[in-house]
Amino acid sequence: MTTFTTAVAASSDDAQETSGTVNLTATVLNANSTAQITALRFAGVTVPPGSTINSAYLTINITSATYDDPDVTVRSSGEANPATFNTDAGHVTNRAKSAASVSWIASNIGAGARNSPDLAALVAETITLPGWASGNAIAFYLTGNSGASSIRCASYDSGSNYPQLTIDYTAPSAGGQPRRTMHQFRLRG
Q1: Which three-class secondary structure string do you get for 78-126?
Q2: For the domain that residue 75 is a member of, what is the CATH number?
Q3: pLDDT tens across 34-86, in order?
Q4: Residues of 82-99 as b/e, b for ≥16 C-beta within 10 angstroms?
Q5: How many domains does the chain have?
Q6: N or C: more exposed end of the chain, with fewer CB within 10 A?
Q7: Residue 3 to residue 167: CA distance in whole angstroms
Q8: Residue 65 belongs to what domain range?
């Protein structure tokens, strides 16, 4: 098993969209209602295609115990190497997302670094997309499920405590028959 960990590394690698308006430079990210979606992109994910995803989770830094009641749906990118985010209206909402989703529903989780539920199914779906290669980017989207959702975390622009991604995986075995090329076969005539 191998553990891969990375953090959001640029201002355009996280975003918050509220009712279609996208903000790339806020110091906090919210998903406090069905009108809000937080987007996190992680570049350089060195998980080979065909790997078994044993576990995966986001670590976000909750900035206040007043906003520590997540009621969100988490999805991953529905594209093999998502680009950075931009401020076009509806940009985050309109991005391709995984069919699989994970609910994160909790109360009073407190301020500080907090881990999401296991997102292995989301990562597994993304790395099976055509075009996935080790070193690609992966994105996650946290959408508020109701007005009861109250989650606020530090963004890249906060200057510290960046959102992180941890993936524990088992790479595919290298055994078996080597790939054959046409020059390895002789035609009999």
Answers
A1: CCCCCCCCCCCCCHHHHCCECCCCEEEECCCCCCEEEECCCCHHHHHHH
A2: 2.60.120
A3: 999 999 999 999 999 999 999 999 999 999 999 999 999 999 999 999 999 99
A4: beebeeeeebbbebebbe
A5: 1
A6: C
A7: 6
A8: 2-173
